[in-house]
Amino acid sequence: MADGGEPGTLRPGGRTARVREAVLRAAEDALTEEGFTGLDLADIARRAGVGKTTVYRRWGTVTGLVADLLADMAEQSSPRTETGSLLGDLTANARLVHRTLTDPRQGALFKALIAAATGDARTAAALHRFYDIRVREWAPCVRQAVERGEAPEGTDAHEVIRAVSAPLYYHLLISGGRLDEALADRAAEAAAIAARAGVYVRQPTVNSVS
Q1: In a 3-state reduction of DSSP, which class is residue 201?
Q2: In terms of CB atoms within 10 Å, which end of the chain has fewer, N or C?
Q3: Residue 78 DSSP SS3
Q4: Comparing C-alpha atoms, which of 26, 72, 18, 79 is closest to residue 48?
Q5: Which residues form the HTH tetR-type domain (predicted)?
Q6: Residue 206 pLDDT grade (very low, low, confident, very high; cuts 50, 70, 90)
Q7: pLDDT in tens, 153-186
Q8: What pLDDT score does 52 carry?
């Protein structure tokens, strides 16, 4: 390939960056409107105003394009907020997730990506990487809380962050319940209480001796 590397991995700068931006935004539009099953590289090229051969050469497949879209979304996500307290930081995280999932465009986009991941291994791997990046971005707020004495030593910071967003995704995808800011605040408070109580302290591995 002209740009080298795996499909969808492009060197930033100049025309390459402009083409990538246009194609990724077109992919977002198509996912939001048509869902994963409606994605077609030729249609995305048309939407982006670029040649079909450029899209096929650089991304190769729909899953390659979706993987690059998720990588871009992780790069563009808002940085964590530091309020000086565990509850404050977790509330900021929960409200950020809430705003994303209730946004008409972003909410529909995430639903489409999650649906795609259930049936495509490469998309699932890309989605897992996206969430891993976001969890690692916010995990330091839990480690800082441990240093302040707000949570016990050994608290699994990643699990605390996952616990904040899990109820929001449940309401989005499963229950159909009202996904409002009050729910986000309750999710943050529940995770903070559980963390302070030691629920997320990593348990040492016990090796059995025969």
Answers
A1: strand
A2: C
A3: coil
A4: 26
A5: 17-77
A6: low
A7: 999 999 999 999 999 999 988 887 778 999 999 9
A8: 92
Instruction: Delineate the domains of the chain, giving CATH numbers in brackets.
Output: 14-68 (1.10.10.60), 77-196 (1.10.357.10)
pLDDT of residue 108: 86
Higher pLDDT residue, 4 or 94? 94
* Other C-beta atoms lying within 10 Å of the C-beta of residue 91: 23
- pLDDT confidence of residue 13: 57
Query: Among candidates 121, 11, 8, 19, which has minimal Cα distance to 69?
Result: 8
- Estimate to the nearest angstrom the gap between the alpha carbon of 104 and the chain centroid: 17
| Among candidate residues 169, 171, 155, the one with its CA nearest the CA of residue 86 | 155
State how far the Cα of 182 lies from the Cα of 188, in Å rounded to an integer. Answer: 10
Mean pLDDT of 120-128: 87
Residue 98 vs residue 118, higher pLDDT: 98
188: nearest Cα among 155, 165, 157, 158: 165
Nearest-CA neighbor of 42 among 28, 29, 23?
Answer: 23
Structure tokens at 90: 């977790």
Q: Letter for the amino acid at 200?
A: Y
